[in-house]
Amino acid sequence: MGKNKSALITGITGQDGSYLAELLIEKKYKVYGLVRRTSTESNERIQHLLNKIELIDGDLIDQNSIINAIKQADPDEIYNLAAQSFVKTSWQQPILTGEVTGLGVIRMLEGIKTVNDKIRFYQASSSEMFGKVHEIPQKETTPFHPRSPYGVAKVYGHYITQNYRESYGIFGCNGILFNHESPRRGIEFVTRKISNAIARIHLGLQKEISLGNLDSKRDWGFAGDYVRAMWLMLQQEKPEDYVIATGETHSIRDFLDIAFKRIDIEDWSNYVKQDPRFMRPAEVDLLLGDASKARKNLGWKPEVNFKQLVDMMVDNDIKMNKLLNK
Ligand code: NAP
Ligand code: G4F
Predict the structure, then answer these.
(1) Residues of the chain with pLDDT > 90: what percent?
(2) Element (H, E) at 229
């Protein structure tokens, strides 16, 4: 019997990192996670996995820490999920976002080139790169037009991964993932902000919710489905880039409709306030992905639909808030 595979995940403490770690453990991988030093631990999402994974100190800003982590883990595969991932913050911290979300990628690739150029590399590219979209739906060949420092940084990461593939033969894949959510989504992203507020309204802990633009549309899927696609990309014969999306788009208003219905409220107008603080200097109005290449080559398709996702998030936040306020 062959040796079990091993993987290094950057961003293991994040939403996707925690689901991917679960998937790889299920597949009998030895899983390592790169974690940055913080004054209080950010292990909440991987608490249940701590005895099954190995954490290694490192930061995407620090080249030596990356090289040391790759040497220590000696992985077959690296999944680069770490990033400053919140679009709104990228206007307040554009240089940090460029350092981590953009240059962090080349630091990982340089690490691979230095330590072992046979390691397979997954880069977390983003539908934010399509920004002011040039065609609907967006696919692998759609031109990029990023609308935020975050989007620009992701475009750099995307092209540098392609370049290391073409220049040095590194097995690097870009997964161009459209928005994906879950009960583990960060609380500042719109879906979780809404599901948590609705849970609190339902329990009488909060009266209303303040949001920004309600008209933008996103192709929202379930994070648990999307990490499967990441793994599948690295199991193929040839490294390629793939769009991962559901092929459906919904506005923030649609999300509010379904989420409020879960607590039996049909007309939510009195519960939602619009607040300019949550508007952005530039907006991505509409994202809708065409994942037919992934369906054909990887056999990938989403299992959780939009309503199931919204209900799952609201139900979970009701449960969590009940526990917190017991
Ligand atoms: P997330 O929950 O925000 O997680 C980000 C992770 O990056 C966290 O583990 C964070 O660690 C880590 N990190 C941040 N700065 C770092 C640094 N300087 N060095 C090392 N680690 C650092 O993001 P996510 O939703 O799981 O997304 C995963 C990746 O996919 C990101 O690259 C994101 O940009 C990309 N993406 C996400 C979506 C989506 O809809 N979720 C769509 C397309 C692409 P701490 O816990 O210490 O903060
Ligand atoms: O939930 P969001 O903050 O996600 P956004 O900007 O689409 O970015 C997410 O998806 C990307 C993939 O396309 C990832 F690459 C990125 O890392 C991240 O995971 O905002 C979604 C929409 C925006 O149009 C925003 O303007 O919701 C709108 N919105 C309206 N009110 C709000 C709010 N967004 C947030 N976060 N908070 C609000 O109060």
Answers:
(1) 98
(2) helix 223-234
Q: Which of 85, 126, 127, 182 is catalytic?
A: 126
User: Domain boundaries in the chain?
Assistant: 6-180+220-244, 187-218+251-282+306-324
| Strand, coil or helix: 216 | coil
For residue 190, report the distance from its CA to the centre of ligand 2, in Å.
6
SS3 52: coil
pLDDT for position 125 = 98
**Ligand 1 atom, smallest distance to 61 CA:** 18
Q: What is the pLDDT of residue 236?
A: 98
At 1, the pLDDT band (50, 70, 90 cuts) reads: low
CA–chain centroid gap for 28, Å, is 23
Range 187-218+251-282+306-324: architecture per CATH:
Alpha-Beta Complex (3.90)
Give the separation between CA 182 and CA 13, rounded to whole angstroms: 14
According to the model, what pLDDT value does residue 214 have? 98
220 alpha carbon – ligand 1 mean position (Å): 17
Residue with tokens 């397979």: 120
Residue ID of nearest Cα to ligand 2 atom 26: 213
Q: What is the mean pLDDT of residues 69-77?
A: 98
pLDDT tens digits, residue range 15-40? Answer: 999 999 999 999 999 999 999 999 99
The CATH classification number of 6-180+220-244 equals 3.40.50.720
Residue 126 annotated among the catalytic residues of the structure: yes
Q: Is 210 a catalytic residue?
A: no
- Which atom of ligand 2 is the closest one to the Cα of 151? 15
Among protein residues, the one whose CA lies closest to atom 41 of ligand 1: 180
pTM for this predicted structure: 0.98
* The two structure tokens encoding residue 2: 């062959």
